[in-house]
Amino acid sequence: MVLNTLSGRFALLTFFLVLMAEVLILVPAVTNYRLDYLESRLERAQIASLALLATDESIAADLESELLQNAQVFNVVLRRNDVRQLVLSSPIPGPVTATYDLRESGFVKAAGDALAQLIDSKDRVIRVIGEPVKQAGQLIEITMNTAPLRTGMIDYAVNLLFLSALLAVVTALVLNLAAQRLILVPIRRVIQHMTAYAAAPNDPRNVITPDARLTEVRDAETALAQMQTNLTSALKQRERLAQLGQAVAKISHDLRNILTTSQIFADRLEDSEDPAVRRAAPKLVNSISRAVTLCETTLAFGKAEEPTPMLSRFNLAQLAAEIEEAESLAASDAQIEFVIDVPPSLMIRADRDQLYRVLSNLTRNARQAIEATRQPGTIEIGAGEDENNWWIRVGDTGPGLPEKAREFLFQPFTGGTRKGGTGLGLAIAADLVRGHGGSLELLRTDEDGTEFMLRLPRDLGAVAAGRASAAAR
Fold this sequence. Notes:
It is built from eleven helices and twelve strands. By secondary structure, it is of the alpha+beta class. It has a five-stranded mixed sheet with strand order 2-1-5-4-3. Strand 9 and strand 10 form a beta hairpin. Helix 1 runs antiparallel to helix 2 and helix 4 runs parallel beside helix 5. The chain is rod-shaped and about 160 Å long. Keywords: ATP-binding, Coiled coil, Kinase, Membrane, Nucleotide-binding, Phosphoprotein, Transferase, Transmembrane, Transmembrane helix, Two-component regulatory system. It catalyses: ATP + protein L-histidine = ADP + protein N-phospho-L-histidine.
């Protein structure tokens, strides 16, 4: 249906607006028509009376009647030299019901009189007073009936409304054609591109090229093109992630079997007679256990979710010491100093293995950032607690994060903090912390270093809410 289209409703609205404007003009137009009609009767009556006065004699009754009929009045009174004179007269069919003095009639009163005239359908006799033309006297007064006046006013109003309606239709059609050309055609082009893109989002040919002349439509095309480009990139990335996920799941499955066998052999190292081997054996076993756990959780991640945190209470200082030792062994020749500012007696409730992964990712990123500068640096792990949270702070004196990493900090494959990095470390860390009901945020990053803050809630209710939120993501 035409009225269900934008152009149809625009044309209909234009029609009614133009028609409404013409209706508003109708009242003053009809008022002016009435005044012009009454003034024309006065002028005809004055011409008829002056013709009689020019003879200085009386005229026949039939000629007087003809003059009055031509002027469409019943009698004519002239006032000249302060003398009121009945110039022409004929029988009046009824009493005079109203007197209108055109010399003192303002627009508001004239408009009211015109509306009253239209409403009153009876033929009445009225008196009209005005000024003679060419100053041929002091005033002229006539009596006349209202039927011809009302008929003329109605005909004039009908003709004016007809012309207004015709003008409204023509205006609506012209504006509709203009809207079709200037607005609807570019909008349809945008819709066609959206439909084509929805059918084949991976085809770059379906990305719209902004070329509209109208600024607003061009801005919409530009925004659509940007959205299509970003969505295409995201779809390609998701496809790569799906392929990568399948590959990682297969690798993790086989690697888990290999590490399980290595764990069995590592257990036997505890029986070695070498004291150094016996001291290193538990650390090796723990490392292999973590690797096995990581493989198992990677397989679970292939199902689009991290395992539920297994909460337990443990000493945070000991965990920080393990991370320091592991990162110290992995450090290159760069002089990196580790500072552990964790109260020795601080006990927190979390999943120990998952928190190890979070802090290990943060410290590893810090170590690699410092190593890239080939300058000495410091990595600090601090912790504490307040009424609602345990907090852990990881800072470094590295060169700070690049601009891209700040913009996509916790997004995988886009928020890499170093050249060649995948950005998975921070994404995994943030996901694990959310699973605890906590938060991981960047406190600062500049040329003096970078600092992250991790908060874990002490309230078990907040932990449950965090698990639900992480599952929903």
